[in-house]
Design brief:
By secondary structure, this protein is an alpha+beta fold. Helices cover 32% and strands 23% of the residues.
Length: 539
């Protein structure tokens, strides 16, 4: 049952909305309101430590605001807002980074005068402890560091009062880039160690509910599942120009109902929501009381995936037949209202660019599909299933109906299965789904990293279970290749394999529709799909 705004106002959410309106109408509160950003979300923040293995996705962007990293990605102006720029790294807690000519040694010069939230100075031993924790503790950071060939505490060496070196066994394109992601915060080690123990030497349990950082914001209060309040750190000087963020306070409030979240922004009682329903976006744009920033998620994709390990989709001709039968344009319109960038419809015979995420030469061609099925000995059709998680129903419900209708023209009888999320994930990991909707987001954008996650290995994100024998070698070759032309050639070979074997049918990059108040400027789409409050200001 959908909760209407009038019903919402009667409940606890209505009390929160009324309180916001009362504060906004008070002259003194209005002044405070000008310096306060209210972010309304439908999600909850389960941990202040982004590396905690039970952390929800919302913990990741929060950590970027309360913890600094050694390096940060830059940002660039896009047509509807700023977009992260993985090709433009800058020092954050490190004011300078030197790289040896052989690409094996990075020297980080820690920023002079940097302090933790408690006022104590950032020391190079804190950085050493944080990196040691990343490769040692049982957390999300360990696997992330391994991607950049950083696996041992012996690789991190203090070489001066404010200098630390990281040494690699061989050059790795991702070594520096991986240090910029949310899983690699720098901790106030002295504070954390006071709350560590023999059974928890890295203070994992304490850091889940307490912060030990020095980022642009400190945690003023935290009511898990309800609200987190951040206070600006006026000592912070680690931004791109050394300037403080505009907002003095950030209130991140959980409001379960999606319509109520949008209403709060439209009324001016909140400033930002990132999880509005796609079907609501046209109405928001038409009313004009809030702005929608439709920023294409170029590091994310949605697709139709096949279980290539079982019949009938172990036959590449069947996969190609389905790819030729999908009603792409109709799905693009019905599923995401044309908001995004298609990854289908290309006409190339040779890849035009060394990118795993590029439009593929898939188009609707039912005659081609019928011929492929006849070649595969399945001209009379077959029965199969198309599955998806309930959380994706707003997107996939109309798409599933179109797929069922189109494949029926080939005598393929599709049973649509909408499943609880946990059941869907379990069956996906156990390779018990035949054909299904899937999606992914790649924090790092180099094609070798994308291919290693989504087109190789036994992990969940290689959803098709594809096991092309050449792909692992190509990925490793690219990861450690120092010549750009050789890297590009290797990626092109990967793309050809993906085109020829069709383990998944890429559909599109979806749109990241940020709904912001009309006076909010500077919003940036980040690879983690959350808000960086340091970017924002009130006009």
């Amino acid at each position: 049952m959908r909760l209407h705004r009038r019903d919402y106002l009667r409940g606890a959410g209505g009390a929160a909305l009324s309180a916001l309106m009362a504060k906004h109408s008070n002259p003194a509160a209005a002044q405070s309101r000008a310096n306060t950003l209210r972010h309304i979300t439908g999600a909850t923040i389960s941990s202040l430590d982004p590396t905690f293995q039970g952390a929800t996705r919302e913990s990741l962007p929060l950590s970027v605001n309360i913890y600094d990293r050694l390096v940060s990605m830059g940002r660039r102006q896009g047509p509807h807002g700023f977009i992260f720029d993985a090709d433009n790294l800058r020092g954050e807690l490190a004011e300078r980074i030197d790289r040896s000519s052989d690409g094996l040694t990075f020297t980080f010069h820690i920023r002079e005068g940097a302090t933790w939230h408690d006022g104590s100075p950032v020391e190079v031993q804190d950085i050493k402890w944080s990196l040691d924790r990343a490769v040692t503790a049982r957390s999300f950071a360990k696997a992330q560091m391994a991607i950049g060939s950083q696996t041992s505490t012996d690789q991190f060496t203090v070489v001066g009062d404010r200098q630390l070196q990281i040494k690699l066994d061989r050059p790795n394109r991702l070594a520096l880039l991986t240090l910029s992601v949310p899983f690699l915060p720098m901790f106030n080690s002295k504070l954390a160690q006071r709350h560590a123990g023999s059974d928890d030497p890295w203070a994992i349990n304490w850091l889940k509910d307490n912060a030990a950082g020095g980022g642009a914001y400190s945690v003023e209060s935290n009511r898990p599942g309800q609200q987190v309040v951040l206070r600006r750190n006026d000592r912070w000087k680690n931004g791109p120009d050394g300037a403080l963020p505009f907002f003095q306070r950030i209130i991140i409030q959980t409001v379960p109902d999606v319509s109520a979240r949008v209403s709060l922004v439209e009324r001016g009682d909140a400033d930002l929501t990132l999880d509005a329903a796609a079907s609501d976006i046209p109405g928001i744009e038409q009313r004009g009381r809030a702005r929608v920033l439709p920023i294409t998620q170029t590091n994310a994709f949605q697709c139709v995936s096949f279980n290539v390990r079982t019949a009938p989709f172990d036959d590449v001709r069947v996969r190609k037949a389905v790819a030729a039968a999908l009603p792409y344009d109709d799905m693009f319109t019905a599923a995401i209202f044309g908001r995004g960038q298609p990854l289908y419809g290309a006409t190339w015979s040779e890849p035009p660019s060394p990118s795993v995420f590029q439009p593929m030469p898939n188009r609707t061609d039912l005659e081609k599909a019928r011929e492929l099925l006849r070649e595969a000995g399945r001209g009379g059709g077959f029965r199969t299933t198309f599955s998806y998680p309930s959380s994706a129903s707003a997107t996939v419900d109309p798409m599933a109906a179109l797929i069922k209708e189109s494949l029926a023209r080939l005598n393929i009888d599709v049973t649509v299965q909408k499943m609880p999320d946990a059941q869907f994930t379990t069956m996906l990991v156990e390779r018990r789904l035949a054909m299904f909707f899937d999606f992914g987001t790649s924090w790092l954008t180099p094609s070798d990293y994308i291919a290693s996650n989504f087109y190789s290995g036994p992990g969940r994100w290689n959803s098709s279970g594809w096991n092309n024998p050449e792909m692992p070698g190509l990925i490793e070759q690219a990861r450690y290749e120092t010549r750009q032309d050789a890297y590009d050639d290797t990626v092109m070979r990967m793309v050809r394999h993906i085109r020829d074997e069709v383990p998944v049918v890429l559909l599109w990059h979806p749109s990241h529709d940020a709904v912001v108040g009309r006076d909010i400027e500077g919003y940036t789409y980040w690879f983690h799909r959350g808000a960086d409050y340091r970017d924002l200001r009130r006009a």
